[in-house]
Amino acid sequence: MNAISRRGFASGLLLSFAFSPALAQQTTPIAPRRLPGSLNTNRRLDAWLHIGSDGKVTVCTGKVEIGQGAVTALMQIAAEELDILPGRITMVSGDTALTPDEGVTAGSQSMENGGSALRYAAAEARAILLEKASARLGAPAAALRVQDGMVSAPNGNGVSYWALAEEGLLRREATASVQPKPPAEHRIVGQPVGRLDIPAKVSGQPIYVQDMRMPGMLFGRVVRPPSYAARLISVDLDAVRAMPGVVAVVRDGRFLGLVARREEQAIKAQRALAAAARWEIPASLPEPAALHAHLRAMKTDDTISNEKHAEAPAVAQRFSASYTKPYLAHASIGPSCAVAQYAEDKASLRVWSHTQGVFPLRADLAKVLGLPLDKLRVTHVQGSGCYGHNGADDVALDAALLARAVPGKPVKLQWMRDEEFAWEPYNPAMVVEVSAGLSAEGRIVDWTHDVWSQHHNNRPGNPTRGINLLAAWHLEQPHQPPYPRALPQPAGSGDRNAVPPYDLPNQKIVHHLIPEMVLRTSALRTLGAFGNVFAIECFMDELGEAAGQDPVAFRLAHMKDTRARAVIEAAARLANWQPGARGDGSQGRGIAFAKYKNVSCYVACVVEVAVDRTTGEIRVPRVFAVVDAGQVINPDGLRNQIDGGIIQALSWSLKEAVQFTPQGVTSRDWQGYPILTFPEVPKVETVLLNHPDLPPLGSGEASQGPAGAALGNALKHATGLRLRAFPYTPDRVKAALNRS
Amino acid sequence: MAAITLTVNGARHQVAAEADTPLLYVLRNDLELNGPRFGCGQGQCGACTVLVDGVPTRSCVTELGTLAGRQITTLEGLASQGRLHALQRAFIAEQAAQCGYCTNGMIMAAKALLETTPEPSEPEIRDALAHYLCRCGTHNRIVAAVQRAVREG
Ligand code: FES
Ligand code: FES
Questions:
Q1: Element of type H or E holding A322
Q2: Mind giving me the DSSP string for A150-188?
Q3: How does pLDDT run across A240-277, given as a tens digit for each residue?
Q4: Chain B positions in Cβ-Cβ contact with residue A387 (cut-off 8 Å)
Q5: Could you tell me if A555 and A685 lie in one domain?
Q6: Half-sphere CA count of A99, side-chain side, radius 13 A
């Protein structure tokens, strides 16, 4: 939905059924029955659905569109259960005044939590409507049929939902007592329904927060310190105040910013303000060449992620290896953007943001700005793809701090490219040390996995003390980020997917969480899974080779899970895998498998490579993937996610590393942080194994781990080189080939 | 600040902005067009692409003062008589977007390619888009959409 019709909602159209979390909590019994998905924490039906007498249905979701098609898939679920055409539905997503609080849209949880909540809520709403229809038509509810909201009785009499709809119809507690449709009856779920947002995006209709325009709107820009640790010595604000179009200049500690009438004026003033500031820049970061040794030596908080011991044959041979990956950037194509507007009296604030979580963002904004929660409304409007926690939340605070200087006026602020690269929270660099023992028969007897990493999830809204918003750390009265704590398995954080998916008699997995901030980090698609799967799946090939077994056979020999076996076998067939085939020095292929978070989507990838041994350049002509995501809600959307994940992961693996010096981050544009381009992108062939009878599993993060690890195995197969550090840039590959 | 006259999507506009203003901000903020998007402001990503006399041009690094007498076309100017351009229809048919932030640049670059090379090979399409960045990994669908537009014209 675009920004303009969103504002239509804001004007009160839907306020008659607006959801009040406080109210819901008061009416909730002490120990309520557990309800499916997010219905458990948002227990009122009218928080999710509104049936209009005008033939329109409004579906509210706390999940938001971040370019993955989640809102379209949620619409399909609601249309399916209500028996209406999707065209009747307006989706309202992510608004602290209008929608349920579903936390953040992350971790591939939209289908698992948001989807099951909506499915049960819609099924119950349909039953309520049918009960009324039954009384009206004098026929038992079980005998009624519904087609696009038209209810008909066996005798041919009918009544529509719209005639039955009345105020307060769904003003009741959900019970989840109505069983949703069996998958065999699905007609909308499981279909490749077109995304709701794509027509606007190809034709230039306003849809992004970047496209918002409001009467009297001004443009903000901030000037960041040159590095995390830089100290502001002096700044002359007066010269900037006098520049054309400048309306306000703000300094609070080392937070500097300004507001101007026109965007280009704001940018010119930003440059002038940056030039007017003098900073002291201490060397505060490690030498980049020694990064992983530095991380390995830091103070850590350790947890045992998993441990098991059983009788096993004697160990005949021992192996160990250390794998590393660098810091990765989200590197959204569109820098982060927000619009903020204070009321004239500064007593309330509205914020429009592409945050993944409107409620958590509101919680942190309220603390920093000293506003009560009910005076602060955050509304989600789409932005550029974020792939996790990027600058979206930070820029919202920036905009709010500047808007406070011009009460009554909306202020739009989009970060410049260099701010996005230098200040977004990165995916942490990681060190993974694995070791294993093989029996004389070539079976794995024991396995250890130790992972060192900063925290992968430093989002706003942490209920403990501390604020995860960038500008808050730079104010005169600075806030501190919360002390990072490991998240429990199976989701985990740095140890996500650190538990091998294989059936091993003995294993011990230890998560060494580095609490100190080296570079700023938070959630990027897969969290630690990308690094952990890289280590596990490449090490599996190392062990298989030592045992004299083919990678596919070696994996299957250690795998009982039938769904896992099915995707591995299907991927091998799809890629025409020839057991025992040898690489020819430059061409080869590798396979890797993961079950996301050890409990979710199954993916096996086969990656083919062609390596130029003189330049070190790796070309990836083709990738094959087989996916079991349980019940498929939208096959086209699922493929888009899987294929996109594979291409992004190959970009991470082949090219990406955040560059820095002891003085600060130096990746500040696309030259300093290159990503995969069209001529380098492989053909991807994806097969979905649909299980309509099983729960849907999130897929947005499922393919990255297997894609990266399969690349590592393909390089080894092609050239004999086992390279245990990403990225595989030509200079590093060439140097390693020369050494070997 | 002098008034500058611009021709965008066939219509003439008077704009009160400095001559060194990047075209992108005028298109977005004065003319309220949404197709061209700010991605980098440095000519590196292609998100801001428009056609200037048919040539794909990065509006974030193109100064207003250089555009007198030129024909500027944006994403909004591709549709005619209420019907989306074949490329736009093909992008919908192929669902060739995830976040869609890069889509403008892809469609505008493809439009220029098809003007000079009406039946490009797949490598030609990839080369024409080599300097247009997509972070979502939608590349193959974008190529498929351009191929569909060629077929279905
Ligand atoms: S915004 Fe113009 S090229 Fe990136
Ligand atoms: S679709 Fe998101 S950047 Fe291309």
A1: strand A317-325
A2: EEE-TTS-EEEHHHH--TTTT-SB----SPPPPGGG-SS
A3: 999 999 999 999 999 999 999 999 999 999 999 999 99
A4: 135
A5: yes
A6: 29
Quick one: which ligand is closest to A382's CA? Answer: 2
Over residues A613-648, the pLDDT tens digits come to 999 999 999 999 999 999 988 898 899 999 999 999
Interface test with A, best of B26, B136, B147 (most A CBs within 10 A): B136
Task: Match 């094959």 to its residue by tokens.
Answer: A624
Q: Which of A112, B133, B129 is nearest to B120 (CA)?
A: B129
Domains of chain A: total: 2
Residues with C-beta less than 6 Å from any ligand 1 atom:
B 38-41, 43-48, 58, 60
**Are A285 and A660 in contact, with CB atoms under 8 Å apart?**
yes
Is B121's Cβ below 8 Å from some Cβ in A? no
Q: Which of A558, A575, A611, A608 is nearest to A713 (CA)?
A: A608
Q: Which ranges in A404-448 belong to alpha helices (H)?
A: 417-423
State which residues form the domain around A86: 33-182
Q: Is A394 an 8 Å CB contact of chain B?
A: no
Give the closest-approach CA distance of B20 to chain A in angstroms: 9
Low-confidence residues in chain B, pLDDT < 50: none
- In tens, the pLDDT along A327-356 reads 999 999 999 999 999 999 999 999 999 999
Check pocket membership of B104 for ligand 2, CB cut-off 6 A: no
Q: Give the Å distances, CA to CA, from B74 to A149, A190, A209, B36, B126.
A: 41, 36, 19, 7, 22
Contact predicate A601/A595, CB 8 Å: yes
Tally of CA atoms within 13 A in the half-sphere of B41 that contains its CB = 17
**pLDDT computed for residue A251 by the predictor:** 98
- B135 touching chain A per CB within 8 A: yes
B22 touches chain A (CB under 8 A): yes
Contact call for residues A276 and A410 (beta carbons, < 8 A):
no
Looking at residue A54, the DSSP 8-state letter turns out to be: T
Question: Are residues B133 and A333, on separate chains, in Cβ contact within 8 Å?
Answer: yes
pLDDT of residue A401: 98
User: Half-sphere exposure (CA, 13 Å, Cβ side) for A182?
Assistant: 1
Q: Which CATH number fits domain B86-152: 1.10.150.120, 1.10.357.20, 1.10.3720.10, 1.10.645.10?
A: 1.10.150.120
Question: A interface mutation test: which of B4, B78, B139, B146 has the most A CBs within 10 A?
Answer: B139
Class of domain B2-74 (CATH, top level) = alpha beta
Residue window 495-554, chain A: list those with CB within 8 Å of chain B.
none
Distance, C-alpha B44 to centroid of its chain: 14
* The token pair that represents A447 in the structure block: 């396995």
Tell me how crowded residue A610 is: count the other CB atoms within 10 A of its CB: 15
Type of residue at A390: N
**Cβ contact, residue pair B97, A263, below 8 Å:** no
Q: Where are the domains of chain B?
A: 2-74, 86-152
Kindly report the nearest CA distance between residue A199 and chain B, in angstroms. Answer: 6
Tell me the shortest Cα–Cα distance from A208 to chain B, in angstroms.
9
Pull the structure tokens for residue A221: 């820009």
Is A443 contained in some domain? yes
CA–CA distance, A520 with A518 (Å, rounded to integer)? 6
The number of residues making up chain A comes to 740
**For position A102, what pLDDT does the model report?**
83
Two tokens at A19? 């959801």
For chain A (length 740 residues), average pLDDT per consecutive 10?
Answer: 33 33 42 83 91 94 81 91 94 90 75 85 95 95 95 95 92 92 90 88 96 97 97 97 98 98 98 98 96 98 98 97 98 98 98 96 97 97 95 98 98 98 98 98 98 96 89 97 93 96 98 97 96 98 97 98 98 97 95 96 98 98 97 89 96 98 97 98 97 88 97 98 98 95
Q: How far apart are CA A310 and CA A660, in angstroms?
A: 46
Is the predicted ipTM greater than 0.90, yes or no? yes
